[in-house]
Amino acid sequence: STQAGRPCIFIRLTGCKLRCTYCDTQYAYFEGADVTEDEIIQRIKAFPCKLVELTGGEPLEQKEAPKLLQRLLNEGYEVLLETDGVEDLSLVPQGVRIIMDVKTPGSRMVSPKSAKNLVHLKPQDEIKFVICDEKDYLFAKNFIEQHQLAGKHTLLMSPVMPDEQLTWLPERILRDGLPVRFQIQLHKVIWGEK
Fold it and tell me: What is the C-alpha to C-alpha distance for residues 53 and 56, in angstroms, rounded to an integer?
């Protein structure tokens, strides 16, 4: 998200019914342990950081996720939610900043639910497109235009990593004058594929 580079506590929840071709967290499909909300709060208080991101898998597949998001807000955290855009966003507490993926054709998980969830986004929320190729780029460009997203939300485009040919995407964004922020997966640049 636009928060990349800031110290952040990740809370990764297990479970995702999607199977994106480029998924780099397949362990989150099934791995994990049951942890209570109180245990989560206790663990994150060990860090001198007030930015927390709930992610997955798909965090909203866990029924208790909205309650946890509210608890984090109540505890004084700045809270981000990274979501696949398929689950119902109306359940997300108002103080949470949503980073919603819109799945592109290259993911093989395009869903009409992403467009339906747009009504639940606030101006400070972000919409992200992971781009595999030109077909994905054109899909994202069309989605932005079709739903008149320019100026409503921060729009992000991120190439699938690692990709040796990163230059084509920012060059195309510049040439077309798209109102998006190009970003890369900073953790992969720093620590590589893990």
Answer: 10
Residues 6+ apart with CB under 8 A from 49: 7, 8, 9
Could you tell me if 185 and 157 are in contact, meaning their C-beta atoms sit under 8 angstroms apart? no
**177 — pLDDT class (breaks 50, 70, 90):** very high
Residue 181, token pair as written in the block: 């922020």
* Amino acid, single-letter form, for residue 181: R
pTM recorded for the entire structure: 0.87
Angle between helices 65-74 and 37-44 in degrees, nearest 10: 40
Beta-bridge mates of residue 82:
99
Report whether pLDDT(27) > 60: no
The residues, ordered by sequence, that sit 6+ positions from 190 with a Cβ below 8 Å of its Cβ are none
Using DSSP bridges, classify how beta strands 9-12 and 154-159 pair: parallel, antiparallel or unpaired. Answer: unpaired
Tell which wins on pLDDT, 132 or 79. 79
Read off the pLDDT of residues 147-159 as tens digits, 9 standing for 90 and up.
999 999 999 998 8
**H or E stretch at 101:** strand 97-101
Confidence of residue 184 (pLDDT cuts 50, 70, 90): confident
- Count of residues making up the chain: 194
> Can you tell me which residue has the tokens 């998924």?
23
Q: Which of 131, 191, 129, 127 is nearest to 163 (CA)?
A: 131
